[in-house]
Amino acid sequence: MPCANGTAFAYRINMRRCLTLVVGILIGQWLTFGATPSPADLYSVGLAAWERRDYPEALRVWSHGAALQPGDAVLHFWRASALARLGQRHAAADGFRLALMLDPPKSVAALARQELASLDAASAKATEVETTVPVEPARGVWVAAVVINGAHEARFLVDTGSSVTLVSPALAKTVGLATKGTKNTMELQTLGGMTAGPVTSLASMRVGEAEVRDVVVVVHDPGPGIDGILGNTFLGRYRLTLDADRRLLSLRRPSSS
């Protein structure tokens, strides 16, 4: 848990003081939403999850709060803190910067700057890549969010049995992959039999903090409801752990690999 003045206790006291001020200002507005949770409710539920180290649940709660109150710097700070605990450094850093842009109380601003400095230091000293991301069940398998070329978010089926990563023609067009006239193709075994698709590469693919550059992909229809299939041209760089009960996928790659 982030610390102010070197102790978790002082950190919690500072945050409670900040939240008391912010909640006092917003509570009247939130009462008009009826069944919608108040900032105090979201803070309490999120903090309870945080204290039992259920960071995915804390992230879910505080993401909900930030979506309902996009101008609430404190909720954005806590959301970023949960992202940091899940190893999603880039997203966490963006969250802390957003919190600072929203003119938070001085103590929250100081903590956000402290967290940003810690993330920068951790990135500089990191000896391995490790990240945990939520996944959703689909068609008897799991689907994860993938960021393509640092800008395009897509839904990919996670398939450790696939030797190559597939990208749908629609996504290939969106990200500007040139496939027309490509002579390099790869045969694929599908449910309908053997087929083939053009081979190309993506500048980068990122799942959480796990990023691979110059990823070899085949452009081919992956099936309904998804944008691609995440195969071993990406997954083969990592050791995977799937927590099916909590719907979490962890990827770990030693720095030497």
Describe the structure.
- With 257 residues, the chain is α+β, with helices and mostly antiparallel strands.
- The protein has two domains: 8-125, Alpha Horseshoe (Serine Threonine Protein Phosphatase 5, Tetratricopeptide repeat), CATH 1.25.40; 130-254, Cathepsin D, subunit A, domain 1 (Beta Barrel), CATH 2.40.70.
- It has helices at 8-31, 39-51, 55-68, 73-85, 89-101, 106-125, 169-175, 232-235; strands at 128-138, 141-148, 152-158, 165-167, 185-190, 193-207, 210-219, 228-230, 239-243, 248-254.
- Strands 2-3-8-4-7-6 form a six-stranded mixed β-barrel.
- Strand 1 (128-138) and strand 2 form a beta hairpin.
- Helix 2 packs antiparallel against helix 3, helix 4 (73-85) runs parallel beside helix 6 (106-125) and helix 5 runs antiparallel to helix 6.
- The radius of gyration is 21 Å and the shape is elongated.
- The two termini are 30 Å apart.
- Residues 1-11 and 17-34 have low confidence and may be disordered.
